[in-house]
Amino acid sequence: MRDCVRARVRERERMGVVVLQVGQGGNQFGLSLFDALFSLTSSLANEFFREPRRSADLPRARAVLIDSEPKVVAAVKRRSRAMGYWRYGPYSSYTEDSGSGNNWAKGFCRLGPSWQDALSDLVRREVEMCDIFDGFITSQSLAGGTGAGIGSYLLEVLKDEYPSCNTLSHCIWPLEGECTVQYYNVVLSIAHLCDVVDGLLLVKNETLMSTCKKALGIQRPSFDDMNTVGARALASVLVPAYYQTKPKLTGLLKSSGKAATTCKVKSSDCQSQMMSSTQVRILSDLVTGLCSHPKYRMLALRNTPQVPTGLDNSTTHPWKSHLKQLKQMLYMEPSWAMESTSSVHGHKCTSDYSAFRKIDRCVANLLVLRGKGSSDADVSLLEDKALYPVWSKDPLMVATNTAPLGDFHIFASLLSNCSSAIAPAAHALSRARAMHASKAYLYQYAKHGLSMDDFDTSFEAIEAVLEQYREL
Amino acid sequence: MPREIITIQCGQCGNQVGCRFWELALQEHAAFNPSGVFYFSMSSLFRNMDTRFKPPRELPVSDGISKIKDLEARAVLVDMEEGVVNQLLKGPLSNLFKSRQCITGISGSGNNWAHGHDVYGPQYGEAILEKIQSEAEKCESLQSFNILHSLGGGTGSGLGSYIMEALHDNYSGVLRISVPVFPSKDDDVVTSPYNSMLAVKSLVDHADCVLPIENEALCEILDKMEVRKLRSPTLYVPKPSKGKKHPSGKGFDAMNEIVANLLLHLTSSVRFDGSLNVDLNELTTNLVPFPKLHFLMSSMSPALHGPSHENAAQLPTVNQLFTDVILHKNQLVKGNPLACTYLASAFLFRGSQSNVSDLSANICHLRQRMKMVHWNPEGFKIGHCFRPPLHAPQALLCLANNTCIRAGIHSNA
């Protein structure tokens, strides 16, 4: 193996990503995410797990768990111990007893600043255990006070402390009726996060629930079921893959023990990967490739299939149907397109649904294909110029890995910087404006230092983001 | 780790309701704790004391595996007559309360709000606050004060109002939740309308959240259960107490049990795990859009021992629980919420047989029947606690900020 390849291998092995789990939803999802990251790969994903000090111990997740009440973090740690494959670090969590009362202002203006020193120390400790630190992935819900409020504050602080790191925020969009003040919390969070994170991945609980019901046949899905589906989708773009670069020979290969075994078995595939591929650097490439424009940061994730299918040797183009399905998913879901705005108290809502185009236009896409023959798949369907604005150069990045993803012999994921967030964001904005016009609940936020002007600023920030995407 | 709730029982009614509440709380924790360990969930309502020391030493929860030695309730008992409190201190719950948690007078308030508020308030106020402070200092993270009182008499309404005002001044950062029992139309206290009107003013200004209860509504719920008993002879209905009865003939014990179940359900998410935890702080944030509009209609399904002896096939499904809980006959205050406007509502579910998709689907159905205020058409809050109550494998509590509460307050005050 060449020296440059050895250097890249060593670098990749030592890169670390720290996952910040904030709030009840964020911690519950984070548990599922680490479970997926562990079980869907044949060897330990060193970016997300570190080897324990004693070889007899289990690998430790590179995670910091944060919540304003103690029960959820305790339950999550208990469940990870019960699974028995990996654990959270013993000093990697911070909880208090106060609760944030679903109040974004309490989380952002009160609790965040008072916890800042303790959280910074905790995060720094985890970051220092990465030889090369790639960045943060946060897992948070947007509905409540802790994940949304404290999560937003923490990301602002970390942006100052680690100015060159990459941040991807995985935000859980609540179900309708989960929380009365959720639209305030959602709008305030997105307005603040857009300024500080590199990529904002919005995942709707409704979509996950619908996937569980329709694709997986689970009639009454629980949060665990939904988190499993969401975690698998996110893990599918985070676990190792190789993107095709032409024509230079910049091959590299995972060289951990298990992967080497895998490559011995599939030597021809590995050989071709070595000859023509470059390892995807999880956060840096993802973020620079998809979110290089400062005004476009909203990401969406689509994947297929949802149920493991066996190897289909009968067709010569197994990837064609999956890629076609991914392209179809880029067309706006009917439920979103049917939303309508109304004017309230004479205040005309500025979100205009008639401006929506039929397809989710994309700034850039990362397509990750896993399974046999992935490197030879024809991706021209997603290279369609109609999907992208004219100013977007090389908008499609393709990464592949011949290794299957857990039980899935074939798996395709599409991480898009696209306009699919317009509909839910506009809906949230109109609801928040309606409550704001009636001054409902504002005294709760004012108690902790958030004024009506702060709300107006956030509304304008969201409008600006939506406008950018409408122009795509 | 624990997040404590201090219960302040004021007056005869408050102490009787409180007595029933502590009985059921002990039974609830004992049912899921056969090994007698002092779990974190118990520390919200109780302290674990080692009485071998003088004075007794509190045993911290620490890692949640220490055995229960002697439980003490986090409570302050106030009454201007000695009878009820003395009965409590001599009865089966005597170990829970110590005399340092009790303040009693001798002559009562004469069913006069002014006597309770303006005479006993200043006279006993400092002593009451000292006892409350002593309780509060033993809490690591005090979440709320729950005040149990009636509004028709003198002590519960007058002295209760004074205590509420004092808590507002001295503990402004801690929630004040009042569970007042409104007098019924045929109440035997002549001055009850004056007393309740004066107390409501104090609740408007000083409470964070009020969950009114009406004896008439409780009687109707019990009537319904007796009708069900006639149809289904094996159905258990609590026996009427031998003691004082409500003018309708119903024992107060059964009525107090409904209120006790309400309090246990309200605090279940603070004490036990769930997939969607709801703190008491979250309830006020979600249900109180304007500071003075904090009077909430409450209803439970099932409210009481219901299906313990029934066939499993007759147990209500989660859909039935949702359908029942918004009906006027299940409200703990007289009123028909479906005929009026909802500002916000919370549905707190207890039980592990259903999950978030069931709750979400039911809320979508209920929306069609509920008239929501125009600026909050999706004003719902869902809570899910895994631990069911004692009296049913699953139960639902609905707290609604609904405009029909004004009829209840208007007619009683």
TrEMBL record, chain A:
<keyword id="KW-0547">Nucleotide-binding</keyword>
<keyword id="KW-0342">GTP-binding</keyword>
<dbReference type="InterPro" id="IPR003008">
    <property type="entry name" value="Tubulin_FtsZ_GTPase"/>
</dbReference>
<dbReference type="InterPro" id="IPR002967">
    <property type="entry name" value="Delta_tubulin"/>
</dbReference>
<dbReference type="GO" id="GO:0005634">
    <property type="term" value="C:nucleus"/>
</dbReference>
<dbReference type="Pfam" id="PF00091">
    <property type="entry name" value="Tubulin"/>
</dbReference>
<keyword id="KW-0539">Nucleus</keyword>
<comment type="similarity">
    <text>Belongs to the tubulin family.</text>
</comment>
<protein>
    <recommendedName>
        <fullName>Tubulin delta chain</fullName>
    </recommendedName>
</protein>
<dbReference type="GO" id="GO:0007017">
    <property type="term" value="P:microtubule-based process"/>
</dbReference>
<dbReference type="GO" id="GO:0005525">
    <property type="term" value="F:GTP binding"/>
</dbReference>
<dbReference type="GO" id="GO:0005814">
    <property type="term" value="C:centriole"/>
</dbReference>
<keyword id="KW-0966">Cell projection</keyword>
<feature type="domain" description="Tubulin/FtsZ GTPase">
    <location>
        <begin position="45"/>
        <end position="245"/>
    </location>
</feature>
<dbReference type="InterPro" id="IPR017975">
    <property type="entry name" value="Tubulin_CS"/>
</dbReference>
<keyword id="KW-0493">Microtubule</keyword>
<keyword id="KW-0970">Cilium biogenesis/degradation</keyword>
<dbReference type="GO" id="GO:0030030">
    <property type="term" value="P:cell projection organization"/>
</dbReference>
<dbReference type="GO" id="GO:0005929">
    <property type="term" value="C:cilium"/>
</dbReference>
<dbReference type="InterPro" id="IPR036525">
    <property type="entry name" value="Tubulin/FtsZ_GTPase_sf"/>
</dbReference>
<dbReference type="GO" id="GO:0005874">
    <property type="term" value="C:microtubule"/>
</dbReference>
<dbReference type="InterPro" id="IPR008280">
    <property type="entry name" value="Tub_FtsZ_C"/>
</dbReference>
UniProtKB/TrEMBL annotation, chain B:
<dbReference type="Pfam" id="PF00091">
    <property type="entry name" value="Tubulin"/>
</dbReference>
<dbReference type="InterPro" id="IPR018316">
    <property type="entry name" value="Tubulin/FtsZ_2-layer-sand-dom"/>
</dbReference>
<dbReference type="InterPro" id="IPR003008">
    <property type="entry name" value="Tubulin_FtsZ_GTPase"/>
</dbReference>
<dbReference type="GO" id="GO:0007017">
    <property type="term" value="P:microtubule-based process"/>
</dbReference>
<dbReference type="Pfam" id="PF03953">
    <property type="entry name" value="Tubulin_C"/>
</dbReference>
<feature type="domain" description="Tubulin/FtsZ 2-layer sandwich">
    <location>
        <begin position="276"/>
        <end position="413"/>
    </location>
</feature>
<dbReference type="InterPro" id="IPR000217">
    <property type="entry name" value="Tubulin"/>
</dbReference>
<protein>
    <recommendedName>
        <fullName>Tubulin epsilon chain</fullName>
    </recommendedName>
</protein>
<dbReference type="GO" id="GO:0005525">
    <property type="term" value="F:GTP binding"/>
</dbReference>
<feature type="domain" description="Tubulin/FtsZ GTPase">
    <location>
        <begin position="57"/>
        <end position="274"/>
    </location>
</feature>
<keyword id="KW-0493">Microtubule</keyword>
<keyword id="KW-0547">Nucleotide-binding</keyword>
<dbReference type="InterPro" id="IPR036525">
    <property type="entry name" value="Tubulin/FtsZ_GTPase_sf"/>
</dbReference>
<dbReference type="InterPro" id="IPR017975">
    <property type="entry name" value="Tubulin_CS"/>
</dbReference>
<keyword id="KW-0342">GTP-binding</keyword>
<dbReference type="GO" id="GO:0005874">
    <property type="term" value="C:microtubule"/>
</dbReference>
<dbReference type="InterPro" id="IPR008280">
    <property type="entry name" value="Tub_FtsZ_C"/>
</dbReference>
<comment type="similarity">
    <text>Belongs to the tubulin family.</text>
</comment>
<dbReference type="InterPro" id="IPR004057">
    <property type="entry name" value="Epsilon_tubulin"/>
</dbReference>
